[in-house]
Amino acid sequence: MAAPESGDGNNGAARMVTLISSDNTRFEVEAAAASLSQTLQLTILDGGGGGGDGIPLPNVDSATLSKVLEYCIKHAPAAANGGAPNATAVDRAELERFDNEFVNIDQSVLYSLIMAAHNLEIEGLQSLVAKKVADMIKGKSPMEIRRTLGFPDPTPEEQAEMNAHMLEYGWAYE
Amino acid sequence: MDLSGWRIASVQTVHAFNGQDQGTVTALKAAYESVPTPPAAAAWSTAAPNDGVDRISRLLDQILRNIVSRLPTNEVARTSALASRWRGLWHSVPLVFLDAGLIPGCVKNPTWRPGLEVTLGITNTVSDALKKHPGPFRCVQITCCYLDMNKEKIKEWMQQVAAKGVQELAFINRPWPFNLPLPTTLFSCTSLM
Lengths: 174, 193
Known about the structure:
Chain A is mostly helical. Helices cover about 55% and strands about 5% of the residues of chain A.
């Protein structure tokens, strides 16, 4: 297999790169989609990840990587348009629908996505998952937040600190 | 002066202040309408199923700050009750403070404003939040308080926001006087965008 020509590969077919998850699964995706990752972008620009060489991602398992790539593939066309100034309202609504559905997942997957988005520096995904956690916190009392996020039950000292806080920041609880 | 051109058809009635004429009410409506959307306004959604493992607390501070910075001020302040890990976060995130966010009626309808008696309690909260947060202030919107009653407070608030490097400031006095003096510190505040 020939090495990809960087930059001017205008033969109709999009340039592909291979990413290798921590459990050694290989994922072949369009370079444009993988390049949403700031971490991967330079390597890909330098021509890495093509042909038989994959880019190893020792911090990301295959289940998480497949989810991350689903996001990247969906968002790559809009990102290629420079934040999609030409996008129609329908396109934007579709992306929003996709995003809402995308983070409708259980917390262990959400946590893996947060870590992967951070390690791979995928800005849109970092915002999406942070917003999801913020939404989970919203409108709840500290005890409800603790339960939602799976904190262990508070120790008596922690409980006393929480009560003191509620007194000091009374306005935050109105 | 004819203010009829300012009227916006869909706006609901603002709670009238005694002695406020129709022109004032109309102009205030227009002012509330034009307050910019604050950063990090996020929509509600359902919670992810929780399996009883506290993973979120294991996240890096940088990630927690990204999460917390998307919450309104009173909610951020609430997270600092969670655990020592979260306590410093409220202070380490640039402040986005909206007095309207403390009044349920304003959250539901951004152009509605409460009567004088409700806002008296809010002014203390504004003072408390501006004093306790060390800055920087990303965005401060004070649009609910009857400031004519609180000339000393205004001076204090404006000194706080100027000293803590406010970037966006929306400030609507109620009910109306144009001749309300603003502290000069505000005009020498270089962080305002």
